[in-house]
Write a structure and sequence with these properties.
mainly beta, Jelly Rolls, ten-stranded antiparallel beta sheet, binds fe (iii) ion, 2 domains, 1 helix
Length: 281
């Protein structure tokens, strides 16, 4: 059965970090509507009159995995594990906070004055929330593409037509694809029946779902259950596709922490105050 659209989210502008303007499709909430996905932010600094970009100074995370995917511009980062570097166009940084990490993320404009990219938060199951933190960085050249008639699919995580993404060992085993369709192309992709499946449309427009509903950039499509998704376009389209199996566990979100209970949030705050939050690095 081909999936219908359950609903379409219009991303809202929010300010995070030090005055960073983002388009947020959703953030962590107790209702956990997009389990295993917790947050999807679109960085889009398109206006040079915004002035210098301050970014996200040192901050903690616990209980989640974050995926940063850059389209244009770059993000300079460093963390409490000793990692530091610059991720640029087409690069991916996948960070497993586990029991605790501190990091800094500072976006920089590209040559055209623009920064564009996405940050996705994926939940960790209760059994792994206090696991060892780790970090995977994948350069643009290491991300393979699957080619179909009129379609180019960069495979960050998961598999398309036998092409496997380099980001692995993520607790939720998600699929994360950057799909570009030329005018007249279609994209049909099988998904597990009960997985959460989302598509973030950021360029052009197309027809989504069994009812071929028209969706234009910028929009987050939430699919109903089913065994495959169908997308087509008359004029060209680009979207990020996310799919993952829900953990179906209660969550307690608080700022940069997502745990299962309020007691675990209290413990994280207590450890931050008394200097025992970071266990390694
Ligand atoms: Fe962060």
């Amino acid at each position: 059965m081909s999936r219908s659209i359950k609903n379409i989210i219009e991303p809202q502008y929010v300010i995070e970090g030090a005055d960073v303007l983002l388009r947020r499709s959703f953030g962590p909430q107790r209702s956990n509507l997009y389990d295993p996905f917790l947050l999807f932010d679109h960085f889009a600094f398109n206006d040079p009159v915004e002035g210098p970009i301050k970014g996200f100074p040192m901050h903690p995370h616990r209980g989640i995995e974050t995926v940063t995917y850059i389209l244009e511009g770059s993000v300079n980062h460093r963390d409490s594990l000793g990692n530091a570097g610059l991720i640029g166009p087409g690069d991916v940084q996948w960070m497993t906070s586990g029991r605790g990490i501190l990091h800094e993320e500072m976006p920089r404009r590209g040559p055209s004055g623009v920064i564009a990219g996405f940050q996705l938060w994926v939940n960790l199951p209760a059994a792994l929330k206090m696991s060892k933190p780790r970090y995977q960085e994948v350069s643009a050249a290491a991300i393979p593409s699957a080619k179909r008639d009129g379609a180019t699919i960069r495979v960050v995580a998961g598999e398309v037509d036998g092409v496997r993404g380099p980001v692995t060992e993520i607790a939720a085993s998600p699929v994360y694809l950057d799909v570009t369709l030329e005018a007249g192309a279609e994209f049909v992709y099988p998904v597990p029946h009960d997985d959460e499946v989302l598509a973030y449309v950021f360029e052009g427009n197309g027809q989504f779902g069994a009812e071929a509903q028209v969706v234009s950039a910028v929009s987050m499509v939430v699919f109903d259950e089913g065994d495959q998704i169908e997308v087509s376009t008359a004029s060209g389209l680009r979207f990020m596709l996310m799919a993952g199996a829900p953990f179906r566990e209660p969550i307690a979100p608080y700022g940069p922490f997502v745990m299962n209970t309020n007691e675990e949030i209290q413990r994280a705050l207590y450890e931050l105050r008394n200097g025992t939050f970071i266990k390694e690095g």
